[in-house]
Amino acid sequence: MARVFVYGTLKKGQPNYKYMINTAKGLAKFQGRGRTVEKYPLVIAGKYNIPYMLNIPGTGHQVAGEIYSVDDQMLQFLDEFEGCPDMYQRTLMRIEVVEWEGKGGTGEARAAAEGVVECFVYSTMTYPPEWVGLPYHDSYDSSGKHGLSYVLRESR
Length: 156
Description:
Blueprint: E1 2-6, H1 17-20, E2 28-36, E3 42-45, E4 50-53, E5 64-70, H2 72-81, E6 89-100, H3 106-114, E7 116-123
Parallel strand pairs: 1-7
Antiparallel strand pairs: 1-5, 2-5, 2-6, 3-4, 6-7
């Protein structure tokens, strides 16, 4: 099992959460909520209002999201879903645990007690330079006050 941190449309209550609970795609177990240890720019960009975490450590905000434990099948699905490695790149980042729900073994308990875990995160190093000038968010909600509703793939 791998640990994945999601900050956009795959979170609970967001437009693509359905994929996280579709066991035909693999297994994803919610572990808790967290935020990036380092600051990153989280922008909403493109004609489909997609949330992107730009891989520019030290700029922006600590980004809030959810921590999942996923199996190899789900990780492979997420790679395809996220257009990895072209649109997003999957990298390890340090995530500060805000609220832990996992009841796993001592490794998880120890990591939660320390407050920081390593997770795979889909961020991007391949973006138009003007995206750096977009507003930075510390968390994402498709129906947030930014007014930039995500356009579902089936509606594009």
